[in-house]
Structure prediction request, 280 residues.
Amino acid sequence: MPVKSYGLLHGKRGVIFGAMVESSIAWSIAEAVHREGGLMVLSNAPVTQRFGKLDELSKIVGDAPVIYADATSQEDLDGLFAETTEHFGGPIDFIVHSIGMGLNVRKDKEYTELNYDWYHKTLDISAISLHRVVTSALESNSLADGASIVTITYIGAQRIFSKYSEMGDAKALLESIVRSYGYRLGGLGVRINAVSQSPTRTTAGQGIAGFDAMFDFAEKMSPLGNADAESCADYTVTLLSDLTRSVTMQTLYNDGGFSGMGMSDSTIELITQAVGKTEK
Ligand SMILES: NC(=O)c1ccc[n+]([C@@H]2O[C@H](COP(=O)([O-])OP(=O)(O)OC[C@H]3O[C@@H](n4cnc5c(N)ncnc54)[C@H](O)[C@@H]3O)[C@@H](O)[C@H]2O)c1
Prediction:
């Protein structure tokens, strides 16, 4: 559904991490930020220079500079914030952290058989990177008064989705960092929130075994159906705007109502058919 511009981010400048290809949630966020009048720097891991399409996205969103940085490297992040504030000639108003990767999940390693080196890497990329990003931005005085930070999470942080495995732990840590840093950023007039998104067909999403079943189950359970990447982007721009200036430390659901549900008629029908019984 095409959305008109409300000019919500007019005059705002920031960094968006995690756009790789068109399906990336951060790709839709960059387009929505551009639509709302915001200016941005785009960033992703250096390895994505080989297969990502950041240069293409840059053109779509007004020739935004592309600065590659590994979000697990403090040195890379420090360089990124130095370049970003130099580019804009001052501190920034928003950061979008849309980064995640589950190494054991990708390689179908069960939760009881985790490779601990990969587990560390998963937590480092998917959660601790948010801490690093915020720390680097603070230490370089890169955040303007009233700045807003948004990260993207999944309800697997709070409830068990069996195949989500180690990523549930990573998202639980991510949401905890949002609260812990949120408290400390408040005194600086900076806020931070997590958007908990429906299953979405992206590279990271489809790397999870059982993704299609998770997607279909959520679709049947959610009164509004699954939220797509574009709606996540629209919700995110409201959180980057001044309209939400008193909202911080929250996990906010963009999930079509899934998180409020226990059972729906369509899942009852599905299970009834599957077990071959007739409902009264
Ligand atoms: N797709 C879903 O179903 C879904 C649902 C809820 C939350 N999320 C979350 O949304 C976020 C974005 O994922 P997506 O679904 O758009 O998939 P995606 O694969 O398009 O995006 C993940 C991004 O993380 C980047 N990344 C990985 N390692 C990095 C590193 N070391 N440094 C910098 N960047 C790195 C990747 O290059 C990629 O751009 C993730 O946090 C993901 O967990 C996804």
Summary: The chain has a mean pLDDT of 96. The chain has one domain: 13-275. Residues 25 and 229 are 5 Å apart (CA to CA).
